[in-house]
Amino acid sequence: MGHKVVVFDISVIRALWETRVRKHKARQKKEEERLEKSALEKIKEEWNFVAECRRKGIPQAEYCKNGFIDTSVRLLEKIEKSTLTRQSLLSRDSGKRSSRFVFELSGDHWKELPDSLKEQTHLREWHISDTLIQIIPTYIELFQAMRILDLPKNQISHLPAEIGCLKNLRELNVSFNHLTSIPPELGDCENLERLDCSGNLELTELPFEKVLEELQSFLLYKNRLTYLPHSMLNLKKLTLLVVSGDHLVELPTALCDSSTPLKFVSLMDNPIDNIQCQDGDEIIESERDRRHFDKEFMKAYIEDLKERESVPSYTTKVSFSLQL
Predict the structure, then answer these.
(1) How much is the pLDDT for 205?
(2) CA dist list (Å): 291 to 211, 234, 286, 297
(3) pLDDT value at position 319?
(4) What percent of the chain has pLDDT over 70?
(5) Distance separating alpha carbons of residues 259 and 280, to the nearest angstrom
(6) pLDDT tens-digit series, residues 277-308
(7) Side-chain half-sphere of 301: how many Cα atoms within 13 Å?
């Protein structure tokens, strides 16, 4: 009995494999489309998440780690809750100042100002402190109603020339930052009454080409100033001047003249030796005199603050809670 020989039609086998190949390619294409759609959805999700965070003023460092964006709703809720808690505490601590005209910001998690601030040009006061913010944006010129710029203990390295556009500015505090110069345009702030540039360790000169005629209080201690410009004699309303702890080697001696409106001048801890004022009195550097001048300074400073608190720059006060 002979062997059976099984005969296959090669065309049938070929058709079978071609069918399998087509199905495999179709599955691959479908998977690629799925992945592409998933990637686009992911990008869209991240974009919307970032836009939402920027709208609410949440710093990028809070949601972006090593280039990767965490888009979890739980994270956003956590950040919002934390921000609202900080804002609530800040508002409670400074409720006296709170109004729809006041912007307040504090904390080393802030490295830049929130984008939403640009739209709030009605603000009359900025109180920003203890942050890592380095730049004051040029759009500050839009805040024509600005009365007070309180910016101590940040990382600000320079002030924009546009600050000179703030014609209604009354007080500027940029103490304990990293300023190396003061823009000449600051002289255009014709109504500036109080200026505090203390604690900027690299500040070496004052460009007083334009004089602030209304300036009454000027704090300059702990900088690197070597001289005071002669144009300071034109500050006819200046009553308080503190330049202690600097590197002064010369100053206009007429500042000590009894004819000036100055009620208090402190030049302690400067390398000036035996400066004679025009009325013949000598500035003496001794521990006893230093303690005396420190007390006099605090007295004059407190009196200056009391006078300002008794004359508000505006009277409209409206309760306002800033949503970041």
Answers:
(1) 85
(2) 32, 30, 9, 10
(3) 33
(4) 61
(5) 13
(6) 444 343 434 444 554 555 555 556 556 655 55
(7) 14
d(CA 176, CA 174): 7
Among 129, 144, 223, which residue's Cα sits nearest to residue 189? 144
How many helices and strands, by DSSP H and E, does the chain display? 4, 10
Residues 216 and 251: their CA atoms lie apart, in Å, by: 19
Which two structure tokens, joined as six digits, stand for 249? 């080697």
Tokens of 218: 């000027």
**Opening angle at CA 97, ends 96 and 102, nearest 5:** 155
| CA 225/CA 216 separation, integer angstroms | 20
Sole residue written with tokens 């190949």: 21
Find the distance separating the first CA and the last CA of the chain, reported in whole Å: 94
In the block, residue with structure tokens 């000169």 = 205
Residue 230: DSSP 8-state: G
Spatial separation of the C-alpha atoms in residues 112 and 277, rounded to whole Å: 46
